[in-house]
Amino acid sequence: MEKNKVNMVAAPEGHVGEGFFATKLDQVVGLARANSLWPLPFATSCCGIEFMATMASHYDLARFGSERVSFSPRQADMLLVMGTISKKMAPILRQVYEQMSEPRWVIAVGACASSGGIFDTYSVLQGIDKVIPVDVYVPGCPPRPEQIVDGVMQLQELVKSESQRRRHSAEYKELLASYNIE
Amino acid sequence: MQQFKMGKVTLPADHRYYKYIEERHNEDGSELAILNLGPTHPATHGIFQNILLMDGERILDAEPTIGYIHRAFEKIAENRPFYQITPLTDRMNYCSSPINNMAWWMTLEKLLDIEVPKRAQYLRVIVMELARITDHLICNSILGVDTGAYTGFLYVFQFREKVYEIYEEICGARLTTNMGRIGGFERDWSPRAFELLDTFLKDFPVAWKEFEDLFTRNRIFIDRTVNVGAITPEMALDYGFTGPNLRAAGVDYDVRVAQPYSSYEDFEFNVPVGKSGDTYDRFCVRNAEVWESLSIIRQALDKMPEGNVFHADVPDYYLPPKEDVYHNMEALIYHFKIVMGEVPVPVAEVYQPVEGGNGELGFYLITDGSRTPYRLHFRRPSFIYYQAYPEMIKGAMLSDAIVILSSLNVIAGELDA
Amino acid sequence: MALESVDIQNKLQETFGDHVKYFRTEYDMFVLEADVDVVYNVIKFLKEEPSLNFSFLTDLCGVHYPDSNLNEQFCVVYHLHNWYENKRIRVKTFLNGTNPEVKSIVSLFNCANWMERETFDFYGINFDGHPNLVRILNMDEMTSFPMRKEFPMEDSGRTDKDDRFFGRTINNATI
Amino acid sequence: MQNSQIDFIPILMQVLLAVGFVALTIFGSSLLGPKRSSANKDKSFECGIESVGNARIPFSVKYFLVAILFVLFDVEVIFMYPWAVNFKEMGAEGLIKMGIFMVLLLIGFFYVIKKKALVWE
Questions:
Q1: Site from B11, B70, B141, B153 to mutate, A interface, most A CB atoms within 10 angstroms
Q2: Does A91 sit within 8 Å of D34, measured CB to CB?
């Protein structure tokens, strides 16, 4: 997914004719999904405050279509796991992930969510990919708001290019089975 | 894929509310409800769970469960040399992390009785008061969000970005600052930091005045916060309250005044005290404290001693600058000894209290002469005063419980350190 | 009249005799040690005695000394603060190693409730008389006490950390 | 098709467009969106904790009272819309009629306040 410099949400490639434009269904659905990702801010510690900075007026994640923050997993598309996830918190994170409606994506924001970060201790879950499948990892402790926005943009590229049949494909089922999420 | 053993998280059968689930009738036929103000809840602004026993809208009893981001700071601190513990301290109360860092450095300076030069002390006072402003700024604007006024948050958060820029000039990081060294700072403040500080001091008071006018005389805000979650001074003292929550109850205890550290005695500032200890008083005390902090910063800037010394001359604790290390032998030896942690540390116990964003933040350090502390205990104000939360919301409405929680400014990082 | 450490010491010694010992001043903090069975009364005395009036419990924490002799392996440290005279005091009491036990001071200070639960959670020190002595910060299913010196810090379930690079295996030659 | 019926066609188009858009999006998204239902997913969301007990419990009557009062005054406001739109044509006489209507409801409101129905004792 090459990164074009200034993209005013470039139209997907397709056949342009006299007064009509034809493209693949995946592209259209992907474009719609990519620009309306509703985040579920699973903010536990310091990265949560950086997320507040990202949502505030200066860095404004709303420019990427994530204006409406949904705290219930039912209407959330993208689970932003920000901050340290302890072992006591793991079942809750997993429950929230399972109750999210498909299609769902996960961004592990910050070193603690991606790999346990500097807290290699008995009480911290060493990376949320031990519990739920993760799509994008954002490094940093805490990552700057630009990095969080860059993580969301990476996810938008993923969403744009996701095919309709991915969620029913064998690899996806096997990935979920490896986490024994049925 | 190594699978993580999963425990079931549910209300245990022997829980004292369990009997309410079966037979729980009320005189008007309605039933007591059990509501779980759980870990992932938008209103709790942190990760703690309260199981509320409620009769309709009124709360009869609450039971908090914490520890959802317990990261064993004290265990890590026992395995790290002294100068590597500062990244832990600023992840405790991450809304005002420079205060924690400076508190840790002051504990070490007290242990090794190092005399920090006046100018470095003044610089520390400025950065601590900036951190206090940002801490109160977040707490009051989130209290506004909880009573329905979202603009206050967006409007005032802009100035937290300005303070982030000042932090970046001083130590390169925005939130988890990891600032300072034993004896002072790692580098002198660049002129740009002072410029940013001056522009901040010029246009923040205007914005803060408007923020204050937005709330203090606002009819809805007054209805939602006046005598909500009121605490008496005796109850506050009994539950170990310190800081703005205690001063709102009418007790004027402030560590900066009771036990002045880092030359706080050179500045005159008065300690705002509330009357009735309710949420409105907590809001007003934090507002007034921001004005006090601004005046302290101005006084510190005026009385700043000349010259550009920014750290004490203690070579065997203070990392020598890199160019010295390459050129002369002693600096190389000192550098090596400090980095390998072979610094001479006495066998002693020391307790250093500091006025943090939420109250008295204390570092109790026991050393046994080795390169790591033998035991380091953090007196975390959020952990201590959060015990009073069930007591404060008994009989309150559910919407009041949310407002009380955000007025207490409980920071989850400090709660479960 | 400033409350001097000397007259605190005299008052305590005349009421508790030699159960209270090793008075000393460390870094502007007056420190004393009390025996286990008498520590509750010492703190009660410090709190209620009108002339001493240490009415604020600043902090309570546990310390583990594995290599000191058996009946001094655990230590509970109380920090009290007298706000009128602005005087701080640290009361230490040593507990026996096999089943550390001390009387809970929740009846004196409500804020000791969670502090004692945290100390129990970390060290397994039993505070009898505590209304609800249950783990507070760690998972409830956890059986061992993590802050004891012999408990390893790292997460045991970790597989990607190669011990050789952390100097844990003596001879790095064999894998 | 008399010409009087013809002017109703735009309204029909408008209704069809509105209903059509709603039906299309709902039907389309249910068609396009992948569905994955599992026992754990269908449980009620309780902030991540296993929910205990049954949520269908008889609520206290105060909730119902507050809801009905809201609906009552809400309907009153709906009556004001047509009045406000052609406020000019109805002139003073319309104003008086609506004034009486509002005063009657105001008396009802005072009754509610006097009986402390809204105070959540």
A1: B70
A2: no
3-state helix, strand, coil in chain C (%, to 5): 25, 25, 45
What pLDDT, on the 0 to 100 scale, is given for residue B260? 92
pLDDT at B249: 92
Inter-chain residue contact D41 with A167, CB threshold 8 Å: no
Distance from CA of A43 to the nearest CA of D (A): 13
With b meaning 16 or more CB within 10 Å and e meaning fewer, what string describes B173-190?
bbbbbbbbbbbbbbebbe
What is the pTM assigned to this prediction? 0.89
Q: B364, B390, B381, B389: which is closest to B415 by C-alpha? A: B381
Q: Quote the tokens at residue B35.
A: 């509501």
SS3 C99: coil
Write out residues in chain A with pLDDT < 50, as ranges: none
CB under 8 Å, gap of 24 or more: what pairs does A19-22 form?
none
CB-CB: which of A29, A74, A164 is closest to D45?
A74
Residue to mutate among B71, B241, B345, B349, with most C CBs inside 10 A, is: B349
Alpha-carbon distance of A43 to A81, in angstroms, equals 6
Q: Are C60 and C76 in contact (CB under 8 A)?
A: yes
pLDDT in tens, D1-46: 677 777 888 999 999 999 999 999 999 888 888 888 888 888 888 8
* Helix (H) or strand (E) run with residue D84 in it: helix D61-85
C35-65 pLDDT, tens digit per residue, is: 998 999 999 999 998 888 899 999 999 999 9
**SS in 3 state form for chain B?**
CCCCCCCCCCCCCCCCCHHHHHCCECCCCCEEEEEEECCCCCCCCCCCEEEEEEECCEEEEEEEECCCCCCCHHHHHCCCCHHHCHHHHCCCCCCCHHHHHHHHHHHHHHHCCCCCCHHHHHHHHHHHHHHHHHHHHHHHHHHHHHCCCHHHHHHHHHHHHHHHHHHHHHHCCCCCCCCCECCECCCCCCHHHHHHHHHHHHHHHHHHHHHHHHHHCCHHHHHHHCCCCCCCHHHHHHCCCCCHHHHHCCCCCCHHHHCCCCCHHHCCCCCCCCCCCCHHHHHHHHHHHHHHHHHHHHHHHHCCCCCCCCECCCCCCCCCCHHHHHHCHHHHHHHHHHHHCCCCCCEEEEEEEEECCCCEEEEEEEEECCCCCCEEEEECHHHHHHHHHHHHHCCCEHHHHHHHHHHHCCCHHHHCC
pLDDT score of B43: 80
* Alpha-carbon span B258 to B84, nearest angstrom: 30
Report residue A180 as tokens.
């024994």
Q: What residues in D contact A99, CB-CB < 8 Å?
A: 40-41, 43, 45
| pLDDT of D48 above 50 | yes
Do B179 and B101 contact (CB within 8 A), yes or no? Answer: yes
Q: Which residues in chain C show pLDDT less than 70?
A: 1-2, 157, 166-175
* pLDDT higher than threshold 60 for residue B10: no
pLDDT at B1 over 90: no
Look at residue B137 and tell me whether its pLDDT is greater than 80: yes
Judged against a pLDDT cut of 50, whether residue B2 lies above it is answered with no
Beta bridge pairs of residue C20: C34
What would the pLDDT profile of B360-380 be if each residue is shown by its tens digit?
999 999 999 888 999 999 999
Phi, psi of C91 (to 5 degrees): -110, 120
State the distance between the two ends of chain D, measured CA to CA, in whole angstroms. 63
Alpha carbon B371 to chain centroid, angstroms = 28
Alpha carbons D85 and D90: distance in angstroms, whole number: 10
Neighbours of D43 (CB within 10 A): 13
